[in-house]
Amino acid sequence: MIRWEREEWTARAEAHAARADALTAAHRERAQRHEKHPVHDFLFTYYSHKPSQLRRWHPGAGITLRDAPERAEWRWYSRGPAPDEVVPDADAFRAAKPQLAALVETMLRRTASRPAQFGCFGLHEWAMVYRTAEHRHPIPLRLGTAGTDAVVEANELRCTHFDAFRFFTDDAVPRNRLALTRESQPDLEQPGCLHAGMDVYKWAVKLGPLVPGELLLDAFELARDIRMLDMQAAPYDLSAWDVRPVPIETAEGKAEYVRRQRGFADRGAALRRELLTAWLGTSGSSATSR
Predict the structure, then answer these.
(1) Residue 283 and residue 269: Cα distance in Å, rounded?
(2) What would the mean pLDDT of 218-222 be, rounded to a whole number?
(3) Which residues, listed in sequence order, are joined to residue 87 by a DSSP beta bridge?
(4) CB neighbours of 170 closer than 8 A, spacing ≥ 6?
(5) Whole-angstrom Cα distance, residue 154 to residue 176?
(6) From the centroid of its chain, how far is CA 283?
(7) Are 283 and 211 in contact (CB under 8 A)?
(8) Is the pLDDT at 212 greater than 70, yes or no?
(9) pLDDT digits (tens, 9 = 90+) for 75-103
(10) The 3-state secondary structure of the chain, one letter per residue
(11) What is the CA radius of gyration of the chain?
């Protein structure tokens, strides 16, 4: 059993808070000015994890904190062998949230077990505005409506992520190679998908104190970096925010997209292994992954 004295774990908590504050500083400053950013604010709206929550450090499952009475009543913490000890309790989490625990483990393991696919070219965002005069984001289209539709029609839609597919326009849905459903998501999620990479952060958030704070911030940084490529490759004109497009309608743009996509897949794979190891003590297969 690993035990950290108060001096050590409070130092870790302070370092974590400082790193989290640096990562969220621009977002918090924009919020004070009532300004929104179409790229960077996504992680705080879609995943609904506030900067104040992100800066709260946890040691991870099974790590005992000495002299930590202030955490004795925190959710998913249990008292350790000594009166002043507390420890994030993976068994307590699974007992209280069996369906969530099974879902998170299944998604992490099954996604990690599959070969990555790199032929989607970020066209999910284009499919969300295909043949429609109105779209989700009040931002002009870089190629205009007709030009955007032409790109969709010149390429095969290969989206594997249901939470992107569910925003496709009615005309785009039948153009996708697969008809995705929420029920089929565990069977189709694959590590090359940008949104599957961003969702590593989502799963880390759902595990709460079972995930070391440092790992949570690593997952946040991966999601932040992926989000930038996701929107650079999108059909929107983001020049007002100094966002350089990755023109996936060209061979050069497709090549850049895939190169960066491969790097994110590697980072996501490493983080999935770390999450499973920190939470369950193993990154291998289990009954829930079969």
Answers:
(1) 11
(2) 98
(3) 78
(4) none
(5) 13
(6) 19
(7) no
(8) yes
(9) 999 998 888 999 999 999 999 999 999 99
(10) CEEECHHHHHHHHHHHHHHHHHHHHHHHHHHHCCCCCCCCCHHHHCCCCCHHHHCCCCCCCCEEECCCHHHCCCCCEEECCCCCCEEECHHHHHHHCHHHHHHHHHHHHHHHHCCCCCCCCCCHHHHCCCCCCCCCCCCCECCHHHHHHHHHHHCCECCCCHHHHCCCCCCCHHHECCCCCCCCHHHHCCCCCHHHHHHHHHHHHHHHHHCCHHHHHHHHHHHHHHHHHHHHCCCECCHHHCCCCCCCCCHHHHHHHHHHHHHHHHHHHHHHHHHHHHHHCCCCCCHHHC
(11) 21
| Neighbouring C-beta atoms of residue 252, cutoff 10 Å | 10
Q: Give the total residue count for the chain.
A: 290
> Helices 194-207 and 213-232: crossing angle, nearest 10°?
150
Domain residue spans of the chain: 2-281
Partners of 65 in beta bridges: 4, 86
**pLDDT tens, position by position, 50-68:** 999 999 999 999 999 999 9
Q: What is the pTM of this model?
A: 0.94
Q: Are strands 77-79 and 86-88 parallel, antiparallel or unpaired?
A: antiparallel
Nearest CA among 208, 142, 136, 143 for reference residue 166: 136
